[in-house]
Amino acid sequence: MIHDRDAGIERLLEIMRRLRDPETGCPWDIEQSYATIAPYTIEEAYEVADAVERGAMDELEGELGDLLLQAVYFAQMGAEDGHFTFQSVVRRVADKMVARHPHVFGNESRDKSAEQQTRDWETIKAAERAGNAQKGALDGVAVHLPALLRALKLQKRAARVGFDWADTGDVLAKITEEAAELAEARDTMGPDEIEDEFGDLLFVMVNLGRHLGLDPEAALRRTNAKFTRRFEAVEARLAERGRSPATSDLAEMDALWDAVKAQEKAAKASRG
């Protein structure tokens, strides 16, 4: 089976079992644990997202395979420890998908909007949390999510029980307040207080994004890409002058930045 390219998931499961075999497996794979594999899982998920964002479909297939391997890795360790198997993982998620889509797999009508289906989904999830003895509104929001994503999820949970601002105007007022508190902390307080106030400002910015219907993680990724693109353009223009950022100064780089920015805006306008 190991060499049968048409064996599908069973081939991958057997490969992982062999890699983890304590007698004949790979020493590195044998030494791994849930904790050591988790960072790779996060990295692979981001690489999938990166391929999607770049529209790199030729890369996406490979990245999805790498991400699938992480699930197979955890399942093999779970089977070794007697916690779960790959089949039980598949069965559990399949059961969950059927239960959460009664309008597809049950008797409920499909004649409702995507927004209503989202509300129904959240209602079903809330019932699941209640069944799992999760009592608080914030129970079950994973601690180790990326900070922006966790902030968004915490705020959504709080909003469901009425703990939310009425509109974006209230959020913008809070941003002004938090910015003033950060400036005060910078001038009069220590590093811990400054970090607290900076975190508060970031948290409210995430809330503003939520009220505007934006994904803060996606928005920041987009800005990161824009900054990278523009800075590399500045470097290219400096290179044309026989210079580099190290041999330039802020005034020159700022002027080039503004020129690159203006060129992008003009190109965008010409495309309509």
Protein architecture, described:
The chain has 272 residues and is an all-alpha fold. It contains twelve helices and no strands. The protein has three domains: 9-100, MazG-like (Helix Hairpins); 136-214, Orthogonal Bundle (Helix Hairpins); 217-270. α9 (168-188) packs antiparallel against α10. The longest helix has 25 residues, at 57-81. It is globular and about 65 Å long. The protein starts with 8 loop residues before the first helix and ends with a helix. Residues 32-105, 172-231 form the NTP pyrophosphohydrolase MazG-like domain. Its EC number is 3.6.1.8. Keywords: Hydrolase. One of its GO terms (molecular function) is ATP diphosphatase activity.
Write a concise keyword list for the protein shown above.
single chain, 272 residues, Helix Hairpins, globular
**Distance separating the two termini:** 55 Å
Work out the strand percent: under 5%
Number of strands: 0
Give the averaged pLDDT, no decimals. 91
Which SSEs are present, and which pair or pack?
Layout (H helix, E strand, L loop, with lengths): L8 H11 L7 H5 L2 H20 L3 H25 L4 H15 L1 H4 L8 H18 L15 H14 L7 H21 L2 H21 L4 H25 L9 H21 L2
Condensed summary:
With 272 residues, this protein is mainly α. 74% of the residues lie in helices and 0% in strands. It has twelve helices and no strands.
